Amino acid sequence: MVMLDQRALPEAEVELECRCAADVAEAIRVLAVRGAPVIGIAGAMGVALAASVGENVDEAASLLVGARPTAANLAWAVREVRREGDEPDLLAARARRLHADEVERCLAMSRHALSLFEAGSAVVTHCNTGALATGGHGTALGAIITAWANGLVDEVFVDETRPLLQGARLTAWELERAGIACTVIVDAAAPALMAAGRATHVVVGADRIAANGDTANKIGTYGLALSAREHGLGFVVVAPSSTVDVHTATGAEIVVEERASDEISSRWRAFNPAFDVTPAGLIGAIVTEQGVLRPPYEPGLRSVDGARVGSELDAEASPTSPAVG
Length: 325
Fold this sequence. Notes:
Blueprint: E1 2-4, E2 15-17, H1 21-29, H2 36-52, H3 57-65, H4 72-82, H5 88-113, E3 121-125, H6 131-134, H7 140-149, E4 153-159, H8 166-178, E5 182-185, H9 190-195, E6 201-204, E7 208-210, E8 215-218, H10 221-231, E9 234-238, E10 244-245, E11 275-278, E12 285-288, E13 291-293, H11 298-317
Parallel strand pairs: 3-4, 3-6, 4-5, 6-9, 7-10, 9-12
Antiparallel strand pairs: 1-2, 7-8, 8-11, 12-13
Helix pairs in contact: 1-2, 1-3, 2-3, 2-4, 2-5, 3-4, 4-5, 5-7
């Protein structure tokens, strides 16, 4: 299994080879591959890889799921591919279908999100939610790029995004490749930018959405939501239905990963959470591939979850389900 090592970006494009499930789990853990949808894809392909090299598939699945506990997509994708049994070719085919499905979901999300932008929009986004994070078009960043292509977005402000500068390194790189000018801002500058009237929207992704609409995303998202409410900006979450976890009632039940203290300081103890949870009351809209949801979110999210499960069962029964290499 070969992936683009995101740790080397934007200075270099380096391929990382994984030859067993432990290699894939380590790549997920150290953020060589990161972004909720794409780590789901990586986890699914990691299960198939384990089967192909003769590893215990159940042990491999547990190892992969444990690599990143906050993102719902990883556990979901591993669970979905395990339904195929232990045959390597069947597992690989299912993993490829999951990949193709994620790309199609991203394109659908972007189409739905267009209705939330107006001409002249100036958007703040956080972390990285583009093709790197999704295996294809992108969630929040995909929606921004689609809105720009339709003449609705004039300016994109990219939070640098702690702890590993995914915005400054990855989102800015993707926008540069797309030919879209952007401005990187330090995370703490976003409220001042909003107060100055330079932004109209905040558009972010999600790693897990609880049944009530509380949303876990990269650390700093909660502060953006508070500031957006204070300054009257639209705050939008764009994420696939695979991120919805109706079995988690509220954000209080979401496990938030805390990264190593020495990423911040080798001398002092540091509080270094990878995520925070934004309460549903601060979110103006949640966009999935099935459409735009407005508060109260729980009925719509449960409907999204039910439709997702039904469509997956239909796809499994169909011999013409899409696949990618």
